[in-house]
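The data are quoted verbatim here:
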Amino acid sequence: MRSRGLLIAAILFVGLAGVIYWSNKQKAKEESAPPKDTTPTVISVSQADITKIELKKKDGRDVVLEKSGSDWRITAPQTWAADQDTVNGLLSSLSTLTGDNVIEQKATDLAQYGLAPPAETVVIGLKNGKSKTLLVGDEAPTGGEVYAMAVGDPKVYTMASYNRNAVDKSVNDLRDKRLLTFNQDSLARVELSSKGQDIEFGKNNQGDWQILKPGPYRADGLQVDELVRKLKDAKMDLTGSEDDRKKAAAAFASATPVGTAKVTDASGTQELQVRKDKAGAYYAKSSVVEGVWKSTSELGDGLNKTVDDFRNKKLFDFGFDDPNKIEMHDGAKSYFFTRGGDKWFSSGKELDTVSIQSFIDKLRELTAAKFVDSGFATPALDVTVTSKDGKRTDKASFSKQGADYVARRENETSLYQVDGKTIQDLEAAAAAVKPTAAAKK
């Protein structure tokens, strides 16, 4: 009896050990397996393979996009240039469209999900001639989700509403709204006719803006860049009706010209005219797109300028670079400062960092109040600044005129009127430059 009991116990022990071994092995297998996909994929396609997109709406306002070279164009309902950034966002959304949950594995009644007919159909044309189609239906009762499915896949998914918003684009969303389509990187010339003046800007060998007309002047690069930015940002307002556009064209015809800008890049020249009516509204007409468009006061004010608004009023051009050498003659006083590495010296003595930097800052910010036609006589002050390792030399002379000064840069005919207090501050900063304090023993 006892032997039989031991045998049964042994058999049970072996069986239990087998169960434990299998359980541990299965657990290890499950732990080592990759996690299950919790975000099912509705559509997956390589973005580079997409050559055509058809956005079919329930209300019939369909839009067709087709790739032409490296760019995209709208080909229906009419042919227009497309906003490349908006199209790229659409492509990115369509390339991998994920859902939240699978609602039904093999759906037979699609109408209950708003998928027969769908609220929107997206047909994705591929370069191999095949296509993939996405159907977007009603909102799910849970809120924040919509029903969706891919043609050829019997499953119905829910996906986040923002995915529907990403592909639900109208023709106005996708149109290129720019009034000027120039390439800013290859922009070589800008012309502006405003306030009875014809102004022309070009770039020198260093890529800096210069004023070519009405005379060869130094340009304030920031002001020219701001003009270019406003021209680049000028856009059509597509929210109005066709009747609104007819009214805009009539208003433009009788409005007062504010300015005309021409931009020239590698592809050619484009023109934009801006006018202002008696009520203060601005209208723009471009050589790139048809029609007249309501514009903004920002664009109008940006074009309503004279050449002096774009001239460089700074007396010295070293900008944010540290000069290498400064020489200043102020009556009987003379100053010679030379930089070596990170330190400044005068007559072989190292200079106090704070005092010399204060003087340099005064030079850097020395700005004319306005341009004048005459008044320069015998110089009372001369300043020469050498920078860019000796490659740039700026020299300016200052003549006293009443309480102020008239300045002239070397090799220039332009005259700059400088506030007298500004020169007094510069003289005081030069006199305050001192040797560095000796280190204590």
